[in-house]
Amino acid sequence: SFAYFTIKDRLPQILTRVIDTLHRHKNEFFEEHGEKGVEAEKRAISFLSKLRNELQTDKPVTPLEDELPDAALWNQYLDYQRNLSNGNGEPSWFQSPWLYVECYMYRRIHAALAQNPPIDNFDVFKEGKAQNFFESQEAVIALCTYFQELLKNIKDLDEKQLQEELFNLLQVSLWGNKCDLSFSAGEDSSQKSSPLQSLENMIPYILVNDMEKLWSLLVNAKKRNTEKSNVRVDIILDNAGFELVSDLVLADFLVSSKLADEVHFHGKSIPWYVSDTTKHDFNWTIKQLQSANHMWMSRCGINWEGNLKKGVWVYRDHMFWTLPHDFSSMAEVAPDLYADLQKSKLLLFKGDLNYRKLTGDRKWEYTVPFHQALNKFHPAPLCSLRTLKSDTQVGLKPGQGEQIQASEPEWMVSGKYGVVQFDAAL
């Protein structure tokens, strides 16, 4: 399975890159923290080398030994996995659900640093995320320019034109999800050219396209919206870099076109899956745009900083997003987060990992309805914007998956296909 190759090849590669990153920063740690920094770097590397060895030799998954706030939840989850195995031995790296051990690896990487001050706040993936952003400059400029031109006459657009622009920006945000560093094990995955030119040609690759449903939900919410009620859209973010910029542009469009009154962004509270967005990445990206020497890029950055100051945009992170649980357990494990999401008119879940957690990462029949696969996770109407990079997919028409499979055996993991998949949460 694709899961097997991920654990066998991709995860050890990622760990090797993390170790290499720490090695390369040794002098910087020394300059900042003296011998203490170098000692911490050595301890972190030895912790990570041991982790890589456990993974490659299929050792049992061990309880977390750190004192971080989520450790107890992780260890309870390990007990749950032990009970699932019906006494067939301890859950190990190759004998466990893929989603669980993959999340577990990133949590252990976090522990390697968190337990080793003074380098405990070092993000081992930060360089890669920054590089992805800089290498996507052309695409970022093209997108910011397109968007600023659009803003000039947004008030004069009729409904049909607004709908068309929403669909364009949803697609840019969808295909922006191709820029994923955990998928390429940290190899370059930046967006080199303007994504807007190829949208028309990409339509056939959207296997489930519920953009019309999103449009009618937003338009009806806008029409019903009296002064008292607030149309809030939440974006559960995936990757930093170009994808994040495409999400910010979409969010700005929703507010500028008055389809939404406010947008809440949800990022990760710790470095995760190589390129996932943290609070630092979010703020850093807006700062980079602000200070860019390109007029429309800096205009975007300045406006977005303004949206945050005015509270029209809100950034939050929650421990739940970096737990191994699928979203059907959110109401039980993180009732505060579930209650917050219930206040939203629309939840946009970006990317493949969120899709795996929405559907429990199971090997579903392709035709199982999305609503059913969500397993009672319905805090609000929700939509997944996802390019396929793992072998779970639901909600297809009869024969659709089999037909693609016949000519493209790798279709579920290549990132070539996408879905804009909606559930009304009724």
From TrEMBL:
Pfam families registered for this protein in UniProt: ARMT1-like_dom
Cofactors (names): Mn(2+); Ni(2+)
Domain of life from the UniProt record: Eukaryota
Gene Ontology MF: a single term: phosphatase activity
EC identifiers of the protein: 2.1.1.-, 3.1.3.-
An annotated GO BP: DNA damage response
Domain called Damage-control phosphatase ARMT1-like metal-binding: residue spans: 6-404
Catalytic activity annotation: L-glutamyl-[protein] + S-adenosyl-L-methionine = [protein]-L-glutamate 5-O-methyl ester + S-adenosyl-L-homocysteine; beta-D-fructose 1-phosphate + H2O = D-fructose + phosphate; beta-D-fructose 6-phosphate = dihydroxyacetone + D-glyceraldehyde 3-phosphate
GO cellular component terms listed in the entry, alphabetical order: nucleus
Keyword Kinase attached: no
Keyword terms of this UniProt record: Hydrolase, Manganese, Metal-binding, Methyltransferase, Nickel, S-adenosyl-L-methionine, Transferase
InterPro entries: ARMT-1-like_metal-bd_sf, ARMT1, ARMT1-like_metal-bd
Domain notes: Subfamily III proteins have a conserved RTxK motif about 40-50 residues from the C-terminus; the threonine may be replaced by serine or cysteine.
PANTHER family assigned: DAMAGE-CONTROL PHOSPHATASE ARMT1
Protein role: Metal-dependent phosphatase that shows phosphatase activity against several substrates, including fructose-1-phosphate and fructose-6-phosphate. Its preference for fructose-1-phosphate, a strong glycating agent that causes DNA damage rather than a canonical yeast metabolite, suggests a damage-control function in hexose phosphate metabolism. Has also been shown to have O-methyltransferase activity that methylates glutamate residues of target proteins to form gamma-glutamyl methyl ester residues. Possibly methylates PCNA, suggesting it is involved in the DNA damage response.
Family: Belongs to the damage-control phosphatase family. Sugar phosphate phosphatase III subfamily.
Name of the molecule in the record: Sugar phosphate phosphatase
Organism per entry: Aptenodytes patagonicus (King penguin)
